[in-house]
Amino acid sequence: MTDHQLPDDDLPCVLVVDLITDYLDDALSPHERARLEEHLAECDDCVTVLDQFRTTITVTGRLASDDVDRLDEPTRAQLIGVFQQWAAGRPG
Amino acid sequence: MQNAPVENVGVGDASIIEALRRGDDQVFTEVVERLHPTLRRVARGYLRSEEAIGDVIQETWIGVLRGIDRFEGRSSLRTWVVSILVNVARSHAVREARMVPFAALGLPDDPRSGFGPECFEGPGGEYPGHWSTPRTPWSEDPVAATLAGETRELVARAVAELPESQRTVITLRDVEGWTGPEVAATLGISEGNQRVLLHRARARVRRALDQHLLPMERRAV
Ligand SMILES: [Zn+2]
To answer: Does A39 reside within a domain?
Structure first.
């Protein structure tokens, strides 16, 4: 866990945005988390930005369904060839 | 999925490793099939040409087979395979002389979260460090819009243009859904560094979406 040396008074938005990924990863100390949530309860703009980060993560996740990265037949055959050659050369 | 404890990820790996050591090509094919999209996406962060990506993937599997008797299963199988891929891809990229040091966390003038100093009130303002202008929520739902293609293209391009280290981290975390500890172990970096890279990467993609989705007249600088 990282100690962020947060200021004693109200957390400024400029610090809040830097903590978003730590917050979503649950990597803040309980104290830091409480401070951040206090700020979010009062600041609609930071909530907007937090929502945008969450949406960004979801949208990025959609890139996983890309067919161009599936294993194609020639590559499959080639890699099985590599495996069989390796297996045949093993002792025992 | 996103927060699965890292020790659960490798469940079943031991029997897979055993089968590979025995020369079971059925199991090998299944593993190759499962990991292939991940390997391609990560390799593309280092190399552009299809030929080079194919070479790197083949060399990775050769490395995996050569090392399989020594693999102790302290990390999950996919963590180990991808860490080999990253090493192979980086040495290919060095040969292609388009290498960026992995530790580079981004340009010094690149704001960590994607918001320049003009977005916040200065020290003389009424609320220093708070937003100088209100944030505008996205009017269009980009999750729905990704299905339409244009938004998806935009996000794919934003990810492709990231520095290599950021691109690798966001690909494994947000595209592949790996955990932070797994990604840190794969890349040999601390979990904290992994999060810094991830945050910068997300910030760039968020910014690209913001510029795309906000109505022209309300667009931030
Ligand atoms: Zn705020």
So the answer is: yes
